[in-house]
Amino acid sequence: MVLSEKDIDRIIEMAWEDRTPFDAIELQYNLKENEVRQLMRKYMKRSSFVMWRKRVKSRKTKHLSLRSFVKGRFKSSNQK
Fold this sequence. Notes:
Blueprint lengths: L4 H12 L5 H8 L3 H11 L2 H12 L23
Helix pairs in contact: 1-3
């Protein structure tokens, strides 16, 4: 899959958002969590990537199956 620069920027933005789960990224861009991780590693500075990974590991909201809530999820107007 070939992603435009705009798509890559949006994926990175979504990955940084605490309440946007990886499932939403997969739904919109057909990228699994590991592929998002690879994209982030490729397009971010190493220190930023390390900070992001540390942050994501402690967030249950990034994985729908770990969430304790279903309703009330914020949905950006940029999401489909």
